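Example S7 (structure tokens).
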């Protein structure tokens, strides 16, 4: 995809002009603060711009969903954070949310309704898949043709929300050479970061989970490991570094792969 600067619309600015976007693009903590995952956010924003989608981000008004707090056992902090987010959504009359982080997707879709937060929550892979099927997103098959790609199923997309087919459909459109790890779909191994494990020291054991999962990926002999979650990306990137394979094998988010292959 050609390099061009895009203006990402901010919800407060649009509302000040009396405009109301169709979608809120929820960036998430990783997309806001993690230098590596910021590239994924930029890639998806470019796709939204390319499709001329009516959307906006919250910008500085966006805060954490409270998911890490709840996973770590701090229910009070979770509810405080969640209720704060729900109030912001009320202020901007948010109805549809597009997420790139599976953890944000899961908590908005399955847990916020308990606190009165009811929205149409759309994972970006389902969104991309729909755009491709409708012919609005045309992919250059030559860009990644025959590149061997393996896909790691994030727990909160797969087992938690049954999103298995969409990422594989997109990757097959991009490459046509998708190879599965032995443990895949509902039997896929966690990257090791879930349940707030990413924020604590490893417990005693013979091997860390992220190393085990990286080894699963290396056995496929794929040159690209496709991910769809900021936690998974961090853990598998660390795994490739641990195995001294980061120069020859790329860990890329599906949004990045699609952005590279757009017909402009």
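Recovered sequence:
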């Amino acid at each position: 995809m050609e390099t061009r600067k895009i203006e990402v619309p901010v919800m407060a600015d649009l509302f000040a002009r009396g405009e109301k976007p169709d979608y809120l693009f929820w960036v998430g903590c990783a997309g806001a603060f993690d230098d590596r995952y910021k590239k994924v956010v930029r890639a998806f924003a470019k796709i939204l711009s390319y499709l001329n989608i009516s959307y906006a981000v919250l910008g500085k008004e966006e805060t954490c969903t409270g998911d890490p707090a709840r996973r770590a056992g701090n229910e009070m902090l979770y509810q405080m954070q969640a209720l704060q987010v729900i109030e912001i959504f009320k202020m901007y009359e948010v109805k549809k949310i597009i997420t790139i982080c599976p953890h944000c997707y899961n908590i908005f879709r399955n847990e916020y309704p308990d606190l009165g937060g009811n929205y149409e929550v759309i994972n970006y892979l389902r969104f991309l898949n729909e755009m491709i099927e409708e012919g609005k997103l045309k992919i250059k098959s030559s860009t990644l043709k025959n590149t061997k790609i393996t896909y790691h199923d994030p727990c909160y997309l797969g087992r938690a929300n049954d999103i298995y087919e969409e990422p594989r459909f997109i990757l097959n459109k991009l490459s046509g050479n998708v190879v599965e790890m032995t443990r895949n779909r509902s039997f896929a191994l966690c990257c090791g970061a879930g349940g707030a494990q990413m924020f604590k020291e490893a417990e005693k054991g013979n091997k860390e989970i992220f190393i085990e999962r990286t080894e699963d990926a290396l056995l496929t002999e794929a040159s690209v490991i496709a991910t769809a979650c900021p936690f998974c990306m961090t853990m598998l990137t660390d795994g490739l570094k641990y195995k001294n394979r980061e120069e020859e094998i790329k860990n890329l988010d599906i949004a990045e792969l699609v952005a590279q292959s757009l017909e402009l």
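Notes on this example. Strands lie at 23-26, 55-56, 96-99, 120-123, 149-151, 178-179, 224-227, 250-253.
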